[in-house]
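--- STAGE predict ---
source: upstream dedup step, 1 unique chain passed
mode: sequence only
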Amino acid sequence: MKKLIPVFLTLLFVVIGCKLPGALKDATSGTNSTGSSSSSKGGKATASSDPRADVVEASKKFLELPYFTANMEGEGQTEIKSQVQYAAPDRFHVKYLGGTGAGLEMIWIGTDSYMNANGKWTKMPSSNASIPNLRDTFTEEGLKKLKDVTFEGEDSVDGKPALVYAYKNVTPVGNYPFTSKIWVSQDTGVPLKIYVEYANGTLKNMTVNYDTESKVTIEPPIASAAK
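--- STAGE serialize ---
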């Protein structure tokens, strides 16, 4: 099962890192490369004359969320189907629902991590690198390589009005080029959905649907199982 941990990390970077590049210092000011304000104000989102700034602003709002759930489905050499839950500042709960690692479940709380395989929780060896730190590292490079951002029009996701943007980027690990579309909620300014197609590598495409409304609580597994 230890071999599956890098697979999970790759997926986590896909969900939070390369697809939503905005956790870097340059983006925290809410300005674009020309210094003008991006389009999302007071929670609401409207398309501006600078699509790149719109995506950066949506990314910043996403990274400020106290919690979210990401439901992921991907195609490649194997099926990928998983759910990632996040609770600020450093808690992640991942469930593999299909494909490689189906039935595997993992929890990260700071530098502590736990794995559930075959119904039994096991505490993993301590690590100095927490998931949030890895998240910050990869997103710092993400925005620098974001290019060819275009506004594709309006759409809806599960009945919620959204603004759609397309762009090109490369993955933080391996520098694999990809094209992506992101659906940004017109009501809240945060992403509702992302679709990515990869030019090469083992993953062909990935769809991620975000639930940013349902509260997420992540606690360590029961004490007896976590020892």
